[in-house]
Amino acid sequence: MKTKTSPAYSQKNENQQSYNIIGDLEVSIAVTGNPFDLPLEQLFQMAARINKKRSFLFVSKVLGKHIPVQPHVSLLAGASLGLLYQHDRGRPLPVQLEQLLHAFEAPETAAEVFAALKRDKMAVGERTLFIGFAETATALGHSMFDVFEGEAAFLHTTRESIAYMTSCIDFEEEHSHATAHRCYATDPSIFREAETIILVDDEMTTGKTALNIIHDLHSKYGKKNYVVASLLDWRSKADIQRFGEVEQELGILIKCLSLVAGEITVHGAPIESTDYLEQKIIEDAEAYIDFLYVNSSFSSVASAPNEETPYLRNTGRFGITAEESGLLDREVAQAAAYLAGHRLGERVLCMGTGEFMYIPMRVAAELGTNIWYQSSTRSPIHPYPEPQYAVHSAYRFASPEQADVTNYMYNIPRGLYDEMFVFIEREVPAQQLVELKEVLTSLAIPRIHIVYFSKREEGEAVEA
């Protein structure tokens, strides 16, 4: 690895910006679209990613993935895509754009704006299926869908393979660490009946992932009308031309919407070393870790006879309609009321896990003030302790639900929080938590709750 240099940012003009990330790795941006005039520094910071296919990462400051954010801000990130879609169709908006932009600048106002959007939902006008891409955009897609009413449905792709279910859609995300995507719908008619399909991702770099799912949707269901909604769209002119070619080839329409669009130029070599990911476990660190269960508040899907722990019904993994969203709202409120009774800390971190982001984000948003939210991820990122660099600390551990999958937590300084809630969809055996608990203990957070949303019916009990 080459000698590190401090990350730098330069602005040639309002549409030309350049980021020196680490060493000779540099990304230059030529902004071509910014319909809401959002400052780029409100949306992302840069980091180096350990991936030969993709050496850099736009680390979102609004997603609630790698960087802790106030949960209502993350919810508004998806809602902003909904407002952009509504604006593009020339339809009235339930809130002023100035309110949305101010909420990103002043997060203390985000809860009020989100509540207004929930009270006065927008109409889709036709049967519309929203699909969020795993793992990063599961919550983004759900929160975009959740500001609409009418004949709307949501489903997110998954990296998991569920043996007792048949995937309705299969496609690849070539640049990712886990390339295969699947879609499991308890009611596959949501694909057949959809008149418009909205694909939601946090970022498009080439657009190949979106085109892959469009090809599969068209071949299986003959769908003609697509919208691709993303926070960032960095497709080149050749990439955009490829979308036009697919439209002509399949006889379909593809509309692309994003908060920011532009072209990027990358210079320098990727960082391939993973040595930095060996976090230091603090031997004398202590933490009180307990287990909380909110399974009685949530609906579960029917599982196979040999499946000990059911999945939650309303995460979006199996499809959810706008009408069913009211049930999820009640489930979230019940879970938040229960967990609020266990909150003792002044500054609290809520941590979703992998694809399980939206429900934890919604629960976190109802736990009071001084709450920060983020999620674990599969993506390995190089940490570097410079203010303009996005990732300052990194911890890795075996996924509690898939022991052969490595997960990471980022940007948790030791001693910053006095309480933490870790949200896991399904209860797992105690031995699968060993590495996660080692990491949690090393964070020097005095009180930690591991919160399960679905309890094992039989099998090994979980012990603190």
Write the layout of secondary structure elements.
Elements: E1 8-13, E2 16-22, E3 25-33, H1 40-43, E4 44-49, E5 56-60, H2 71-88, H3 97-105, H4 110-119, E6 122-123, E7 128-132, H5 138-145, E8 148-149, E9 152-156, E10 169-172, E11 180-183, H6 189-193, E12 196-204, H7 208-221, E13 225-233, H8 237-250, E14 253-267, E15 288-293, E16 320-321, H9 325-340, E17 348-352, H10 358-365, E18 371-375, E19 381-382, E20 394-398, E21 406-410, E22 419-424, H11 434-442, E23 447-452
Parallel strand pairs: 6-8, 7-9, 7-12, 12-13, 13-14, 15-23, 17-18, 17-22, 22-23
Antiparallel strand pairs: 1-2, 2-3, 3-14, 4-5, 4-19, 9-16, 10-11, 20-21
User: How much beta, percentage-wise?
Assistant: 25-35%
Low-confidence stretches: 1-7
What is the topology, as strand order, of the major beta sheet? 1-2-3-14-13-12-7-9-16
Helix content: 10-25%
Structural class, by secondary structure, is: alpha/beta
Give the helix tally. Answer: 11
Radius of gyration: 21 Å
Q: Biggest β-sheet, characterized?
A: 9 strands, mixed
